[in-house]
Amino acid sequence: MKLYITYDLKPGNEYPRLVAALRAMGGCQPLQGGWVVDVQFTAAQVRDHLRKFIQEDDRLLILSLGGSWASIGLSADDAGCLRRKVSN
């Protein structure tokens, strides 16, 4: 499933375990605080997995992606990541 994962985290805290978990899923980060993954799990399963890496009052949003996207100002690497993970 192609997912966009974004979050609002407590300022001043480090979240290395969250970042490590997203990278372990093969995620790329085209924007600060937003990751794209292509995994064999549902959005709810990914939410439940990532929950253990954030604080209780942080916010997490996971959206299923379709094949169409557009951008402005992304690096070639970030655009390449989106082509690989999102485009059909």
Q: Can you offer a commentary on this structure?
A:
The chain is α+β, with helices and mostly antiparallel strands and 88 residues long. The protein has one domain: Alpha-Beta Plaits. Helix content is 31%, strand content 25%. It is built from three helices and four strands, in the order βαββαβα. The chain has a four-stranded antiparallel beta sheet with strand order 2-3-1-4. β2 and β3 form a beta hairpin.
Task: Write a brief structural summary.
The chain has helices at 16-24, 43-50, 76-85; strands at 2-8, 28-31, 34-38, 59-64.
Name some characteristics of this structure.
single chain, Alpha-Beta Plaits, 88 residues, alpha+beta, 4-stranded antiparallel sheet
Largest sheet: 4 strands, antiparallel
CATH topology: Alpha-Beta Plaits
Task: Please report the distance between the alpha carbons of the first and last residues.
Answer: 12 Å
Kindly give the count of domains.
1
Spell out the blueprint of helices and strands.
Layout: E1 2-8, H1 16-24, E2 28-31, E3 34-38, H2 43-50, E4 59-64, H3 76-85
Antiparallel strand pairs: 1-3, 1-4, 2-3
